[in-house]
Amino acid sequence: MASPSTAVLLLALVCLGTASAASSGAPGLKCFCPGVYKPVCGSDGLVYSNAKCMFCANSTLTVVKHGTCTPTYYNINDY
Q1: What phi-psi label fits residue 17: left (phi over 0), alpha (psi between -120 and 50 degrees) or beta?
Q2: Contact 32, 22 (CB under 8 A)
Q3: How far is residue 52's CA from residue 32's CA, in Å, rounded to a whole number?
Q4: Does the pLDDT value for residue 68 go beyond 90?
Q5: Is the pLDDT of residue 52 over 70?
Q6: Is the dihedral of CA 58, 40, 34, 18 positive or negative?
Q7: For the chain, what is the mean pLDDT?
Q8: Which residues form the Kazal-like domain (predicted)?
């Protein structure tokens, strides 16, 4: 049976491997999008459940705001 320190080291390596695949944004790699709800507004104006999910959708996006995007209201008289 493996020692507890060996098990912890193995778990850490697996986690690091998963994190590096998620943060690479490289085409063809599966991106890990956690089920944690911490909404962010992306530079494309869309709300994502968290920053990692936004990055998985498009690695060129940036976080504009933590939380939902501010809705844009248009005055009908301007058209």
Answers
A1: alpha
A2: yes
A3: 8
A4: yes
A5: yes
A6: positive
A7: 74
A8: 25-71
The first and second tokens of residue 52, run together, are 């990692």
Q: Contact, 79 vs 53, CB < 8 A?
A: no
Half-sphere exposure of 2 (CA within 13 A, CB side): 8
- What residue segments make up the domains of the chain, in order of their start? 40-73
What are the CB-based long-range contacts (under 8 Å, 24+) for 35-39? 38/66, 39/66, 39/67, 39/68
DSSP the chain: ---HHHHHHHHHHHHHHHHHHHHH--TTSPPP--S----EEETTS-EESSHHHHHHH-TT--EEEESSPPPP---GGG-
Task: Determine the pLDDT at residue 66.
Answer: 96
Under 8 Å between Cβ of 39 and 51:
no
Q: Which residue has the higher pLDDT, 60 or 27?
A: 60
